[in-house]
Amino acid sequence: MFNDKKNKKSSMEAGKSQNRIGHGTTINGDVVSDGGFRIDGVINGTLKTPGKVVIGKDGKIDGTLECANADVEGVFSGTLVVNGLLSLKSTANIQGDVSTQKLAVEPGATFNASCKMDAPVKSITAGKRGKQPRHSFFNIYVITITTCS
Q1: β-pair partners for 126
Q2: What is the pLDDT of residues 56-72, one digit of tens each?
Q3: CA separation (Å) from 33 to 15, 17, 19, 49, 52?
Q4: Alpha helices in the chain (DSSP H)
Q5: Pick the residue with more confidence: 118 or 5?
Q6: pLDDT reading at 47 higher than 60
Q7: C-beta neighbour count of 105 within 10 angstroms
Q8: Average pLDDT of the segment spanning 136-147
Q9: pTM of the shown model
């Protein structure tokens, strides 16, 4: 009786687990997971997850990243597809092609990428409410934001 409830809970939490690529670890190839990731090591290849990805200060991804949301403190080079919010911390360094709905950039971050932003827009069509994607495309070659005290 009690074991059944624990087993159901464990299987539900498995899909929401946090994966960690630690400092000193290098992965060459493709990684696919249902859980989120914290990257403090290096990934050379593709990472796909419906969860959130955090690239730590020592983390680096060279390749393709597809995720729901991302916080970047480290280095990313390649194709970055974020379905929600891409947050660049002050130590972030991004190079390549970026597609996201929302972008937040802290002072000090380096963002050298072409960026496509898709945001759902509510519209009324034939008396029915629906969402239509709004597309905006812009190139940002180098943005370095610094603060002076």
Answers
A1: none
A2: 999 999 999 999 999 99
A3: 8, 10, 9, 5, 11
A4: 2-14
A5: 118
A6: yes
A7: 19
A8: 52
A9: 0.72
- Both tokens of 92, joined, read 């972030």
Going 84 to 136 to 106 to 58, the CA torsion angle's sign is positive
Tell me how far apart the alpha carbons of residues 60 and 34 are, in angstroms, rounded to a whole number.
20
Q: Is the pLDDT of residue 25 over 60?
A: yes
Dihedral of the CA atoms 70, 72, 74, 76 (nearest 10)?
60
Task: Give the model's pLDDT for residue 124.
Answer: 47
Q: Tokens representing 132?
A: 């239509």
Q: Identify whether the C-beta of residue 35 lies closer than 8 Å to the C-beta of residue 16.
A: yes
CA pair distance 60, 58, nearest whole angstrom: 7
The answer to whether residues 111 and 105 touch, using CB atoms and an 8 Å cutoff, is yes
Residue range 84-104: mean pLDDT, rounded: 95
The SS3 call for residue 76 is strand
Q: Quote the CA–CA distance of 9 and 2 in Å, as a whole number.
A: 11
- Structure tokens of 118? 């898709």
Q: Which residue's entry shows tokens 């249902």?
A: 34
Instruction: Give the pLDDT confidence score for residue 62 in this predicted structure.
Output: 98
Let me know: does 122 contact 131? Beta carbons within 8 Å: yes
